[in-house]
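Long-time lurker. I teach an intro course on protein structure, and each term I like to show students one example going from raw sequence to a predicted 3D structure in token notation. This year I'd like something fresh instead of my usual example. Would anyone be willing to generate the tokens for the chain below so I can use it in lecture? Attribution to the forum is fine with me.
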Amino acid sequence: MSSEFVIRLAGEAVYTTLKASAPMMLLALAVGLIISIFQATTQIQEQTLAFVPKIVIVLIAIIAFGPWILTTLVDFTYNLMSNLYKYVG
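-- Reply from a regular --
Happy to contribute to a lecture. Here you go:
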């Protein structure tokens, strides 16, 4: 295996990870921003007010985007395992 091959494979793995986690991260970012603006305007500094809605929205996102995430990860794994003979030899 050449170093270019390993770097390309690692890049694909990182890209797949980012693609699979993007919906949850973006929704948590949006909810966190909305809660932060609400806290700044009302001057309420309760930590659970920012934490609980993010957990709830991430769980909803996992339920909503779960099949797509699973398909993305299975496709990457299938591609990796089907070309395993190229990596070993």
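Some talking points for your students: The chain has a mean pLDDT of 91. The CA atoms of residues 15 and 52 lie 29 Å apart.
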